[in-house]
Amino acid sequence: MARHETAAPEPSLRERKRARTRRALIEAAAELFERQGYEETTVAEIAAAAEIGTRTFFGYFASKEDILFPDSDARARATIAAIADRDPAEGPVDVLLRALDAIAESDADMVSPMAGVRMRLFHTVPAVRGKALQVQLAAQREIARELQVAFPDELDRVTAAALAGGLTGAVSGALDALIGEDGIDGADADNVRTRVRQATEAALRPWRQAAGQ
Amino acid sequence: MARHETAAPEPSLRERKRARTRRALIEAAAELFERQGYEETTVAEIAAAAEIGTRTFFGYFASKEDILFPDSDARARATIAAIADRDPAEGPVDVLLRALDAIAESDADMVSPMAGVRMRLFHTVPAVRGKALQVQLAAQREIARELQVAFPDELDRVTAAALAGGLTGAVSGALDALIGEDGIDGADADNVRTRVRQATEAALRPWRQAAGQ
DNA sequence: TGCGAGTTTGCTGTCAATGCATTAACCTCT
DNA sequence: AGAGGTTAATGCATTGACAGCAAACTCGCA
Q1: Sequence-separated (6 or more) residues with CB below 8 Å from residue A183
Q2: How far apart are the first and last CA of chain A?
Q3: pLDDT in tens, A128-167
Q4: Which residues of B touch A168 (CB under 8 A)?
Q5: pTM for this structure?
Q6: Full set of structural domains in chain B with CATH
Q7: Which A residues in the span 128-147 are in contact with B, Cβ-Cβ below 8 Å?
Protein backbone atom coordinates (compact mmCIF):
# COMPACT_ATOMS: atom_id res chain seq x y z
CA MET A 1 0.00 0.00 0.00
CA ALA A 2 2.47 2.61 -1.03
CA ARG A 3 1.21 6.13 -0.74
CA HIS A 4 2.19 8.57 -3.40
CA GLU A 5 3.70 11.78 -2.23
CA THR A 6 2.19 13.85 -4.97
CA ALA A 7 0.77 17.03 -3.54
CA ALA A 8 -2.85 16.81 -4.58
CA PRO A 9 -4.83 18.13 -1.66
CA GLU A 10 -7.36 20.28 -3.45
CA PRO A 11 -7.93 19.87 -7.14
CA SER A 12 -8.75 23.18 -8.71
CA LEU A 13 -12.17 23.81 -10.14
CA ARG A 14 -10.72 23.33 -13.56
CA GLU A 15 -9.38 19.94 -12.69
CA ARG A 16 -12.56 18.84 -11.03
CA LYS A 17 -14.55 19.90 -14.02
CA ARG A 18 -12.27 18.10 -16.36
CA ALA A 19 -12.42 14.96 -14.30
CA ARG A 20 -16.18 15.13 -14.28
CA THR A 21 -16.37 15.46 -18.03
CA ARG A 22 -13.98 12.61 -18.40
CA ARG A 23 -16.13 10.40 -16.26
CA ALA A 24 -19.21 11.46 -18.14
CA LEU A 25 -17.53 10.50 -21.38
CA ILE A 26 -16.57 7.11 -20.10
CA GLU A 27 -20.00 6.36 -18.79
CA ALA A 28 -21.70 7.55 -21.91
CA ALA A 29 -19.37 5.52 -24.07
CA ALA A 30 -19.80 2.41 -21.96
CA GLU A 31 -23.53 2.59 -22.20
CA LEU A 32 -23.61 3.33 -25.89
CA PHE A 33 -21.16 0.57 -26.68
CA GLU A 34 -23.18 -1.79 -24.59
CA ARG A 35 -26.45 -0.94 -26.22
CA GLN A 36 -25.50 -0.40 -29.84
CA GLY A 37 -22.12 -2.00 -30.17
CA TYR A 38 -18.75 -0.40 -30.64
CA GLU A 39 -18.62 0.12 -34.34
CA GLU A 40 -22.19 1.29 -34.43
CA THR A 41 -21.40 4.08 -32.01
CA THR A 42 -19.79 7.21 -33.38
CA VAL A 43 -17.52 9.52 -31.50
CA ALA A 44 -19.99 12.28 -32.21
CA GLU A 45 -22.68 10.35 -30.36
CA ILE A 46 -20.48 9.81 -27.35
CA ALA A 47 -19.55 13.45 -27.24
CA ALA A 48 -23.16 14.49 -27.58
CA ALA A 49 -24.21 12.15 -24.78
CA ALA A 50 -21.59 13.74 -22.54
CA GLU A 51 -22.66 17.17 -23.71
CA ILE A 52 -19.46 18.30 -25.27
CA GLY A 53 -18.44 19.10 -28.82
CA THR A 54 -17.21 16.33 -31.03
CA ARG A 55 -13.83 17.90 -31.42
CA THR A 56 -13.42 18.10 -27.69
CA PHE A 57 -13.58 14.34 -27.34
CA PHE A 58 -10.09 14.14 -28.72
CA GLY A 59 -8.86 16.45 -26.04
CA TYR A 60 -9.70 13.72 -23.57
CA PHE A 61 -8.85 10.60 -25.49
CA ALA A 62 -6.46 10.37 -28.36
CA SER A 63 -8.64 7.91 -30.20
CA LYS A 64 -11.97 6.18 -29.99
CA GLU A 65 -10.28 3.05 -28.76
CA ASP A 66 -8.52 4.85 -25.98
CA ILE A 67 -11.70 5.43 -24.10
CA LEU A 68 -11.95 1.70 -23.59
CA PHE A 69 -8.85 1.75 -21.40
CA PRO A 70 -9.24 4.77 -19.18
CA ASP A 71 -7.01 3.23 -16.54
CA SER A 72 -4.57 1.30 -18.64
CA ASP A 73 -1.60 1.94 -16.43
CA ALA A 74 -3.22 0.87 -13.17
CA ARG A 75 -2.30 -2.74 -13.67
CA ALA A 76 1.24 -1.94 -14.63
CA ARG A 77 1.62 0.20 -11.54
CA ALA A 78 0.27 -2.53 -9.32
CA THR A 79 2.69 -4.99 -10.81
CA ILE A 80 5.64 -2.73 -10.43
CA ALA A 81 4.74 -2.05 -6.86
CA ALA A 82 4.55 -5.76 -6.20
CA ILE A 83 7.93 -6.31 -7.76
CA ALA A 84 9.40 -3.42 -5.88
CA ASP A 85 8.63 -4.61 -2.38
CA ARG A 86 9.76 -8.14 -2.75
CA ASP A 87 11.21 -10.45 -0.24
CA PRO A 88 14.97 -10.75 -0.85
CA ALA A 89 14.64 -14.51 -0.71
CA GLU A 90 12.11 -14.69 -3.52
CA GLY A 91 13.02 -15.70 -7.01
CA PRO A 92 11.72 -13.93 -10.12
CA VAL A 93 8.90 -16.38 -10.71
CA ASP A 94 7.57 -16.11 -7.19
CA VAL A 95 7.62 -12.38 -7.41
CA LEU A 96 5.70 -12.47 -10.63
CA LEU A 97 3.08 -14.80 -9.28
CA ARG A 98 2.65 -12.54 -6.30
CA ALA A 99 2.31 -9.61 -8.63
CA LEU A 100 -0.42 -11.51 -10.38
CA ASP A 101 -2.39 -11.72 -7.17
CA ALA A 102 -1.83 -8.05 -6.55
CA ILE A 103 -3.28 -7.25 -9.93
CA ALA A 104 -6.32 -9.38 -9.38
CA GLU A 105 -6.92 -7.57 -6.14
CA SER A 106 -6.46 -4.09 -7.50
CA ASP A 107 -8.79 -5.01 -10.32
CA ALA A 108 -11.45 -6.16 -7.95
CA ASP A 109 -11.34 -2.82 -6.19
CA MET A 110 -11.59 -0.44 -9.00
CA VAL A 111 -14.34 -1.55 -11.26
CA SER A 112 -14.57 0.82 -14.13
CA PRO A 113 -17.92 0.74 -15.89
CA MET A 114 -15.84 0.01 -18.93
CA ALA A 115 -14.34 -3.26 -17.72
CA GLY A 116 -17.27 -5.48 -18.52
CA VAL A 117 -18.03 -3.87 -21.83
CA ARG A 118 -14.43 -4.12 -22.82
CA MET A 119 -14.28 -7.81 -22.16
CA ARG A 120 -17.35 -8.48 -24.21
CA LEU A 121 -16.09 -6.33 -27.04
CA PHE A 122 -12.71 -7.97 -27.04
CA HIS A 123 -14.07 -11.07 -28.66
CA THR A 124 -16.12 -9.42 -31.32
CA VAL A 125 -14.39 -6.23 -32.39
CA PRO A 126 -10.95 -6.41 -33.99
CA ALA A 127 -10.12 -2.83 -33.18
CA VAL A 128 -10.74 -3.46 -29.52
CA ARG A 129 -8.71 -6.62 -29.54
CA GLY A 130 -5.82 -4.84 -31.18
CA LYS A 131 -5.84 -2.07 -28.67
CA ALA A 132 -6.16 -4.43 -25.74
CA LEU A 133 -3.20 -6.43 -26.89
CA GLN A 134 -1.16 -3.29 -27.26
CA VAL A 135 -1.96 -2.24 -23.75
CA GLN A 136 -0.94 -5.67 -22.63
CA LEU A 137 2.34 -5.48 -24.47
CA ALA A 138 3.10 -2.13 -22.90
CA ALA A 139 2.50 -3.59 -19.47
CA GLN A 140 4.61 -6.57 -20.31
CA ARG A 141 7.51 -4.40 -21.34
CA GLU A 142 7.26 -2.48 -18.13
CA ILE A 143 7.26 -5.69 -16.16
CA ALA A 144 10.31 -6.89 -18.03
CA ARG A 145 12.18 -3.73 -17.22
CA GLU A 146 11.35 -3.83 -13.54
CA LEU A 147 12.16 -7.47 -13.38
CA GLN A 148 15.54 -6.90 -14.84
CA VAL A 149 16.18 -4.12 -12.40
CA ALA A 150 15.12 -6.29 -9.51
CA PHE A 151 17.24 -9.27 -10.57
CA PRO A 152 20.21 -7.86 -12.41
CA ASP A 153 22.34 -10.91 -11.69
CA GLU A 154 19.94 -13.71 -12.51
CA LEU A 155 18.33 -12.15 -15.56
CA ASP A 156 19.68 -10.46 -18.62
CA ARG A 157 17.48 -8.17 -20.64
CA VAL A 158 16.28 -10.74 -23.11
CA THR A 159 15.58 -13.39 -20.53
CA ALA A 160 13.66 -10.94 -18.41
CA ALA A 161 11.60 -10.02 -21.43
CA ALA A 162 10.98 -13.67 -22.20
CA LEU A 163 9.87 -14.31 -18.67
CA ALA A 164 7.58 -11.31 -18.63
CA GLY A 165 6.17 -12.39 -21.95
CA GLY A 166 5.69 -15.89 -20.67
CA LEU A 167 3.74 -14.68 -17.71
CA THR A 168 1.45 -12.30 -19.54
CA GLY A 169 0.99 -14.76 -22.34
CA ALA A 170 0.05 -17.54 -19.98
CA VAL A 171 -2.36 -15.40 -18.03
CA SER A 172 -4.05 -13.93 -21.04
CA GLY A 173 -4.16 -17.29 -22.74
CA ALA A 174 -5.82 -18.88 -19.74
CA LEU A 175 -8.27 -16.02 -19.47
CA ASP A 176 -9.02 -16.17 -23.13
CA ALA A 177 -9.84 -19.83 -22.84
CA LEU A 178 -11.96 -19.36 -19.75
CA ILE A 179 -13.94 -16.50 -21.07
CA GLY A 180 -14.55 -18.23 -24.33
CA GLU A 181 -17.56 -16.96 -26.12
CA ASP A 182 -19.97 -15.68 -23.59
CA GLY A 183 -17.93 -13.93 -20.96
CA ILE A 184 -17.68 -14.97 -17.39
CA ASP A 185 -20.88 -16.28 -15.93
CA GLY A 186 -20.78 -14.00 -12.97
CA ALA A 187 -20.43 -15.96 -9.79
CA ASP A 188 -17.28 -17.83 -10.72
CA ALA A 189 -14.96 -14.87 -10.45
CA ASP A 190 -13.12 -16.61 -7.66
CA ASN A 191 -13.07 -19.82 -9.56
CA VAL A 192 -11.56 -17.98 -12.47
CA ARG A 193 -8.85 -16.62 -10.29
CA THR A 194 -7.76 -19.94 -9.00
CA ARG A 195 -7.89 -21.60 -12.39
CA VAL A 196 -5.86 -18.85 -13.96
CA ARG A 197 -3.47 -19.08 -11.13
CA GLN A 198 -3.04 -22.80 -11.53
CA ALA A 199 -2.71 -22.72 -15.27
CA THR A 200 -0.22 -19.91 -15.05
CA GLU A 201 1.86 -21.69 -12.53
CA ALA A 202 1.95 -24.73 -14.74
CA ALA A 203 2.98 -22.60 -17.67
CA LEU A 204 5.85 -21.04 -15.75
CA ARG A 205 7.16 -24.09 -14.01
CA PRO A 206 10.40 -24.54 -15.98
CA TRP A 207 11.36 -20.96 -15.31
CA ARG A 208 11.51 -21.66 -11.65
CA GLN A 209 14.55 -23.86 -11.98
CA ALA A 210 16.17 -22.02 -14.83
CA ALA A 211 16.03 -18.54 -13.40
CA GLY A 212 17.25 -19.66 -10.02
CA GLN A 213 20.43 -21.20 -11.26
CA MET B 1 8.98 -28.94 -47.42
CA ALA B 2 5.57 -30.49 -47.39
CA ARG B 3 3.85 -30.74 -50.72
CA HIS B 4 0.20 -29.98 -50.78
CA GLU B 5 -2.02 -32.46 -52.48
CA THR B 6 -4.48 -29.85 -53.62
CA ALA B 7 -5.35 -30.32 -57.24
CA ALA B 8 -3.81 -27.21 -58.74
CA PRO B 9 -2.32 -28.37 -62.00
CA GLU B 10 -2.84 -25.33 -64.12
CA PRO B 11 -4.11 -22.16 -62.62
CA SER B 12 -6.38 -20.41 -65.05
CA LEU B 13 -5.34 -17.21 -66.67
CA ARG B 14 -7.65 -15.40 -64.35
CA GLU B 15 -6.02 -16.89 -61.32
CA ARG B 16 -2.53 -16.24 -62.56
CA LYS B 17 -3.41 -12.66 -63.24
CA ARG B 18 -4.89 -12.21 -59.84
CA ALA B 19 -1.86 -13.74 -58.17
CA ARG B 20 0.43 -11.48 -60.14
CA THR B 21 -1.48 -8.39 -59.13
CA ARG B 22 -1.43 -9.54 -55.56
CA ARG B 23 2.31 -9.92 -55.64
CA ALA B 24 2.71 -6.56 -57.28
CA LEU B 25 0.65 -4.99 -54.52
CA ILE B 26 2.74 -6.56 -51.81
CA GLU B 27 5.99 -5.52 -53.37
CA ALA B 28 4.82 -2.01 -54.02
CA ALA B 29 3.55 -1.68 -50.49
CA ALA B 30 6.73 -3.05 -48.98
CA GLU B 31 8.84 -0.60 -50.87
CA LEU B 32 6.65 2.37 -50.18
CA PHE B 33 6.40 1.56 -46.50
CA GLU B 34 10.12 1.17 -46.36
CA ARG B 35 10.85 4.45 -48.06
CA GLN B 36 8.15 6.73 -46.74
CA GLY B 37 6.85 4.99 -43.70
CA TYR B 38 3.54 3.28 -43.12
CA GLU B 39 1.33 6.15 -42.16
CA GLU B 40 2.80 8.34 -44.81
CA THR B 41 1.82 5.89 -47.50
CA THR B 42 -1.77 5.96 -48.67
CA VAL B 43 -3.68 3.04 -50.07
CA ALA B 44 -4.16 5.09 -53.21
CA GLU B 45 -0.39 5.27 -53.66
CA ILE B 46 0.05 1.55 -53.26
CA ALA B 47 -2.71 0.87 -55.73
CA ALA B 48 -1.25 3.32 -58.20
CA ALA B 49 2.19 1.74 -57.88
CA ALA B 50 0.68 -1.64 -58.68
CA GLU B 51 -1.31 -0.09 -61.48
CA ILE B 52 -4.78 -0.79 -60.26
CA GLY B 53 -7.61 1.42 -59.10
CA THR B 54 -7.76 2.44 -55.48
CA ARG B 55 -11.03 0.69 -54.91
CA THR B 56 -9.61 -2.54 -56.23
CA PHE B 57 -7.04 -2.69 -53.47
CA PHE B 58 -9.77 -3.71 -51.10
CA GLY B 59 -10.66 -6.61 -53.32
CA TYR B 60 -7.26 -8.03 -52.46
CA PHE B 61 -6.81 -7.00 -48.86
CA ALA B 62 -9.57 -6.18 -46.46
CA SER B 63 -7.62 -3.35 -44.91
CA LYS B 64 -4.38 -1.47 -45.23
CA GLU B 65 -2.94 -3.43 -42.36
CA ASP B 66 -3.77 -6.73 -43.92
CA ILE B 67 -1.21 -6.29 -46.63
CA LEU B 68 1.47 -6.49 -43.96
CA PHE B 69 0.55 -10.11 -43.32
CA PRO B 70 0.04 -11.59 -46.74
CA ASP B 71 0.28 -15.15 -45.55
CA SER B 72 -0.48 -15.07 -41.90
CA ASP B 73 -1.99 -18.51 -42.06
CA ALA B 74 1.20 -20.13 -43.27
CA ARG B 75 2.41 -20.04 -39.71
CA ALA B 76 -0.72 -21.62 -38.42
CA ARG B 77 -0.53 -24.36 -40.99
CA ALA B 78 3.11 -25.08 -40.21
CA THR B 79 2.32 -25.30 -36.55
CA ILE B 80 -0.62 -27.56 -36.97
CA ALA B 81 1.39 -29.80 -39.19
CA ALA B 82 4.12 -29.95 -36.57
CA ILE B 83 1.66 -30.90 -33.89
CA ALA B 84 -0.10 -33.35 -36.12
CA ASP B 85 2.83 -35.58 -36.96
CA ARG B 86 4.09 -36.03 -33.50
CA ASP B 87 5.90 -38.94 -32.01
CA PRO B 88 3.57 -40.86 -29.71
CA ALA B 89 6.25 -40.77 -27.06
CA GLU B 90 6.40 -36.99 -26.96
CA GLY B 91 4.74 -34.99 -24.24
CA PRO B 92 2.81 -31.77 -24.79
CA VAL B 93 5.77 -29.57 -24.11
CA ASP B 94 8.01 -31.43 -26.52
CA VAL B 95 5.45 -31.04 -29.23
CA LEU B 96 5.03 -27.37 -28.48
CA LEU B 97 8.75 -26.77 -28.60
CA ARG B 98 8.96 -28.49 -31.93
CA ALA B 99 6.03 -26.49 -33.23
CA LEU B 100 7.61 -23.23 -32.24
CA ASP B 101 10.80 -24.21 -33.94
CA ALA B 102 8.78 -24.96 -37.01
CA ILE B 103 7.37 -21.47 -36.93
CA ALA B 104 10.79 -19.93 -36.61
CA GLU B 105 11.97 -21.88 -39.59
CA SER B 106 8.88 -21.63 -41.73
CA ASP B 107 9.86 -20.08 -45.00
CA ALA B 108 6.63 -18.82 -46.32
CA ASP B 109 6.18 -16.08 -43.84
CA MET B 110 9.78 -15.02 -43.43
CA VAL B 111 10.82 -14.82 -46.98
CA SER B 112 8.14 -12.41 -47.99
CA PRO B 113 9.57 -8.98 -48.78
CA MET B 114 7.21 -7.79 -46.12
CA ALA B 115 8.85 -9.59 -43.20
CA GLY B 116 11.63 -7.11 -42.56
CA VAL B 117 9.51 -4.08 -43.11
CA ARG B 118 6.90 -5.42 -40.80
CA MET B 119 9.37 -5.97 -38.03
CA ARG B 120 10.72 -2.50 -38.25
CA LEU B 121 7.26 -1.02 -38.39
CA PHE B 122 6.13 -3.00 -35.39
CA HIS B 123 8.03 -0.78 -33.04
CA THR B 124 7.03 2.52 -34.45
CA VAL B 125 3.49 2.20 -35.76
CA PRO B 126 0.67 1.40 -33.35
CA ALA B 127 -1.61 0.13 -36.06
CA VAL B 128 0.98 -2.38 -37.16
CA ARG B 129 1.62 -3.48 -33.63
CA GLY B 130 -2.06 -4.01 -33.03
CA LYS B 131 -2.49 -6.09 -36.11
CA ALA B 132 0.62 -8.13 -35.45
CA LEU B 133 -0.53 -8.96 -31.97
CA GLN B 134 -3.87 -10.03 -33.26
CA VAL B 135 -2.28 -12.35 -35.75
CA GLN B 136 -0.20 -13.76 -32.97
CA LEU B 137 -3.20 -14.29 -30.77
CA ALA B 138 -4.99 -16.11 -33.55
CA ALA B 139 -2.03 -18.41 -34.01
CA GLN B 140 -1.79 -18.97 -30.30
CA ARG B 141 -5.41 -19.96 -30.09
CA GLU B 142 -4.97 -22.37 -32.91
CA ILE B 143 -1.99 -23.90 -31.18
CA ALA B 144 -3.91 -24.25 -27.97
CA ARG B 145 -6.76 -25.98 -29.71
CA GLU B 146 -4.54 -28.43 -31.55
CA LEU B 147 -2.60 -29.10 -28.42
CA GLN B 148 -5.69 -29.91 -26.52
CA VAL B 149 -6.90 -32.18 -29.27
CA ALA B 150 -3.58 -33.96 -29.33
CA PHE B 151 -3.49 -34.45 -25.56
CA PRO B 152 -7.07 -34.64 -24.39
CA ASP B 153 -6.14 -36.58 -21.28
CA GLU B 154 -3.15 -34.67 -20.02
CA LEU B 155 -4.43 -31.17 -20.72
CA ASP B 156 -7.65 -29.38 -20.06
CA ARG B 157 -8.58 -26.44 -22.25
CA VAL B 158 -7.35 -23.80 -19.88
CA THR B 159 -3.99 -25.35 -19.23
CA ALA B 160 -3.45 -25.92 -22.92
CA ALA B 161 -4.21 -22.27 -23.54
CA ALA B 162 -1.91 -21.14 -20.77
CA LEU B 163 0.86 -23.31 -22.10
CA ALA B 164 0.43 -22.07 -25.64
CA GLY B 165 0.23 -18.50 -24.41
CA GLY B 166 3.17 -18.87 -22.09
CA LEU B 167 5.46 -20.18 -24.76
CA THR B 168 4.45 -17.89 -27.58
CA GLY B 169 4.49 -14.99 -25.17
CA ALA B 170 7.99 -15.86 -24.07
CA VAL B 171 9.25 -16.05 -27.63
CA SER B 172 7.62 -12.84 -28.73
CA GLY B 173 8.74 -11.10 -25.58
CA ALA B 174 12.31 -12.11 -26.23
CA LEU B 175 12.00 -11.05 -29.83
CA ASP B 176 10.64 -7.72 -28.77
CA ALA B 177 13.60 -7.18 -26.49
CA LEU B 178 16.08 -8.32 -29.09
CA ILE B 179 14.78 -6.03 -31.74
CA GLY B 180 14.47 -3.18 -29.34
CA GLU B 181 18.14 -3.44 -28.67
CA ASP B 182 19.30 -2.58 -32.11
CA GLY B 183 16.55 -2.94 -34.61
CA ILE B 184 16.85 -4.94 -37.74
CA ASP B 185 19.60 -4.16 -40.14
CA GLY B 186 18.52 -4.79 -43.67
CA ALA B 187 15.38 -5.82 -45.41
CA ASP B 188 17.07 -9.12 -45.75
CA ALA B 189 15.13 -12.15 -44.77
CA ASP B 190 18.04 -14.03 -43.27
CA ASN B 191 18.37 -11.34 -40.73
CA VAL B 192 14.80 -11.65 -39.73
CA ARG B 193 15.04 -15.35 -39.37
CA THR B 194 18.20 -15.05 -37.34
CA ARG B 195 16.45 -12.82 -34.88
CA VAL B 196 13.52 -15.11 -34.58
CA ARG B 197 15.81 -18.02 -33.99
CA GLN B 198 17.75 -16.15 -31.37
CA ALA B 199 14.60 -15.19 -29.57
CA THR B 200 13.23 -18.69 -29.73
CA GLU B 201 16.47 -20.01 -28.43
CA ALA B 202 16.57 -17.66 -25.46
CA ALA B 203 12.95 -17.97 -24.55
CA LEU B 204 12.75 -21.71 -24.73
CA ARG B 205 15.98 -22.56 -23.02
CA PRO B 206 14.37 -23.22 -19.66
CA TRP B 207 11.83 -25.46 -21.29
CA ARG B 208 14.33 -27.50 -23.16
CA GLN B 209 16.25 -28.12 -19.98
CA ALA B 210 13.15 -29.05 -18.09
CA ALA B 211 12.08 -31.34 -20.89
CA GLY B 212 15.44 -33.02 -20.63
CA GLN B 213 16.68 -31.72 -23.95
C1' DT C 1 -20.21 -16.70 -80.61
C1' DG C 2 -22.51 -15.39 -76.69
C1' DC C 3 -24.11 -16.04 -71.88
C1' DG C 4 -22.76 -15.81 -67.09
C1' DA C 5 -19.71 -15.62 -63.19
C1' DG C 6 -16.05 -13.06 -61.34
C1' DT C 7 -13.33 -8.44 -61.57
C1' DT C 8 -12.25 -3.76 -61.93
C1' DT C 9 -13.41 0.96 -61.15
C1' DG C 10 -15.42 5.28 -60.19
C1' DC C 11 -18.66 7.70 -57.41
C1' DT C 12 -20.68 8.78 -53.23
C1' DG C 13 -21.13 8.63 -48.36
C1' DT C 14 -19.60 7.78 -43.47
C1' DC C 15 -16.54 8.25 -39.88
C1' DA C 16 -12.16 8.81 -37.32
C1' DA C 17 -8.64 12.02 -36.64
C1' DT C 18 -5.89 16.31 -37.21
C1' DG C 19 -4.62 21.31 -38.03
C1' DC C 20 -6.00 25.95 -37.43
C1' DA C 21 -8.20 29.83 -35.57
C1' DT C 22 -11.45 31.82 -32.32
C1' DT C 23 -13.71 32.34 -28.13
C1' DA C 24 -14.88 31.18 -23.39
C1' DA C 25 -13.42 29.72 -18.77
C1' DC C 26 -10.13 29.56 -15.15
C1' DC C 27 -6.02 31.08 -12.47
C1' DT C 28 -2.54 34.15 -10.60
C1' DC C 29 -0.49 38.04 -9.23
C1' DT C 30 -0.77 42.63 -7.80
C1' DA D 1 -11.29 43.22 -7.91
C1' DG D 2 -9.23 43.17 -12.36
C1' DA D 3 -5.55 42.69 -15.92
C1' DG D 4 -2.97 39.38 -18.33
C1' DG D 5 -1.56 34.73 -19.22
C1' DT D 6 -2.97 29.94 -19.74
C1' DT D 7 -5.70 26.08 -20.72
C1' DA D 8 -9.83 24.14 -22.55
C1' DA D 9 -13.76 24.01 -25.81
C1' DT D 10 -15.40 24.31 -30.31
C1' DG D 11 -16.29 24.99 -35.16
C1' DC D 12 -14.62 24.42 -39.77
C1' DA D 13 -12.12 22.34 -43.22
C1' DT D 14 -9.45 18.45 -44.74
C1' DT D 15 -7.35 13.99 -45.27
C1' DG D 16 -7.57 9.15 -45.64
C1' DA D 17 -9.63 4.45 -44.76
C1' DC D 18 -13.46 1.87 -46.12
C1' DA D 19 -18.22 0.21 -47.64
C1' DG D 20 -22.21 0.12 -51.00
C1' DC D 21 -23.74 0.50 -55.54
C1' DA D 22 -23.91 0.03 -60.34
C1' DA D 23 -21.76 0.19 -64.85
C1' DA D 24 -18.08 -1.64 -67.81
C1' DC D 25 -15.06 -5.50 -68.57
C1' DT D 26 -12.68 -9.98 -68.80
C1' DC D 27 -12.44 -14.83 -68.77
C1' DG D 28 -14.33 -19.57 -68.89
C1' DC D 29 -17.20 -22.51 -71.18
C1' DA D 30 -21.08 -24.27 -73.57
Answers
A1: A116, A119, A120
A2: 32
A3: 999 999 999 999 999 999 999 999 999 999 999 999 999 9
A4: 169, 173
A5: 0.90
A6: 13-64 (1.10.10.60), 69-210 (1.10.357)
A7: 129-131, 133-134, 136-137, 140-141, 144
